[in-house]
Amino acid sequence: MLSSHRLRVLLEVFRTGSIAGAARNLRLSPSAVSHQLSRLEEEAGVGLVERAAHSLRLTAAGRRLATRAHEVLDLIEAAEKDLLAQARADAGQLRIGFFASAGYRLLPLALSTFTARHPAVELDLVLGQPHDLLPDVERGALDVLVVFEHALDPWKPPKGVEVTHLFDEPQLLVLPLGHPAGQRPRVRLADLADEPWITTYGTDTPVSVLERASALEGFSPTIRCRSDHYEVTLGLVRAGLGVALVPSLGAHGAGGIQVCQVDAPKLYRRIGAASRPTNPNPALRSFLDYLRDASARMRIALR
Q1: Is residue 263 within 8 Å of residue 134, measured between CB atoms?
Q2: Rounded CA separation 133/98 (Å)
Q3: Residue 175 forms beta bridges with which residues?
Q4: pLDDT at residue 86 in the model
Q5: Cα separations in angstroms, 220 against 68, 215, 223
Q6: Whether pTM exceeds 0.85
Q7: Which helix (H) or strand (E) holds 58?
Q8: Hey, which of 31-35, 52-56, 116-120, 161-165 has the most confident mean pLDDT?
Q9: Does the N terminus or the C terminus of the chain have fewer Cβ atoms within 10 A?
């Protein structure tokens, strides 16, 4: 039978890419880590690592076993928590990652009801971009991450992470007060091809969603400023320095601007919650229920 302790050692080598990294995380000596790997190979009856003079890498069998080890260790942790706490969701810790505009209303709405029901759960909230925080979900440093995905810039979650769809959030055209286009219910981007634009950076590339959408309409926008902070974008638009595309969560309730619908089929974000299905944290399941409820309320508010 394979040792769970040695499986944990293998998993840390897989995560860190080295014996030294695994030793640091597990607070063991490198020689102890190497010894445990050798014992695990004996138990498995197959080579799990390829050793060279100054490097080490997992074999195909080692990588497969590391993936299974993640699942096994999650199940063991779940069993331990069931025995110790009888799977109660009103204690423990919940680690939540989120992007900035989700922190304006969506996340506070979910957390206000969750904390009223589970006041003893310790919350650890981490602000960041989804592509920066997804590795933390994969390795278990975050229980759940509120994410977005642009329809024009899709991505796939890491292996072992699933995204629960919450709602689709339209991109809105934001204009200075008095702008002529603000009198129309829907506006095409090409109608504003000569305007200066305030836009974001790309999710994981230099190309923003505005630039992708504009290319589909046959023009290249004049970019006056790039910012991933919607307060900055709205302030510049409010001052008459340009026009912008802003997701509904980022523009909701803002004053001193005009907001119009955009006449384009794929200008929206998919909002979701990324987590590991094998995560044993009982508070996670309860929080996801409150997040779904908050999302349903936000869908109505953003219409």
Answers
A1: no
A2: 9
A3: 258
A4: 45
A5: 48, 6, 9
A6: no
A7: strand 56-58
A8: 161-165
A9: N
Question: Tokens in use for 79?
Answer: 């069993």
* CA–CA dist 297, 99 (Å, integer): 19
Is 49 a residue whose pLDDT tops 90? no
Q: Retrieve residue 238's tokens.
A: 């409010």
Residue from 296, 247, 235 nearest 104 by CA: 247
End-to-end Cα spacing for the chain: 57
CA 282/CA 163 separation, integer angstroms? 18
Longest pairwise C-alpha distance within the chain: 75
Report CA-CA distances (Å) from 199 to 110, 184, 237.
29, 22, 11
Task: Work out the mean pLDDT of the chain and round it to a whole number.
Answer: 89
Strand partners, 167: 271
The fraction of the chain above a pLDDT of 70, given in percent, is 95
Token output for 73:
């260790």
Mean pLDDT over 117-130 rounds to 94
User: How many CA atoms lie within 13 Å of 109's alpha carbon, on the beta-carbon side?
Assistant: 17
Q: What is the pLDDT of residue 219?
A: 95
Cα angle 119, 123, 125; round to 5: 145
Closest CA to 257 of 181, 194, 196, 186: 181
How far, in Å, CA of 178 to CA of 180, rounded? 6
Which of 2-16, 147-161, 252-266, 270-284 is the least confident region?
2-16
Average pLDDT rounded to a whole number, residues 161-187? 94
From the list 280, 301, 286, the residue with the least C-alpha distance to 114 is 286
pLDDT (average), residues 200-222? 88
Enumerate residues 6+ apart whose C-beta is below 8 A from 285.
89
Measure the CA–CA gap between 229 and 104, rounded to whole angstroms: 12
Q: Whose structure tokens read 């640091």? A: 24
The DSSP string of 4-43 is HHHHHHHHHHHHHSSHHHHHHHHT--HHHHHHHHHHHHHH
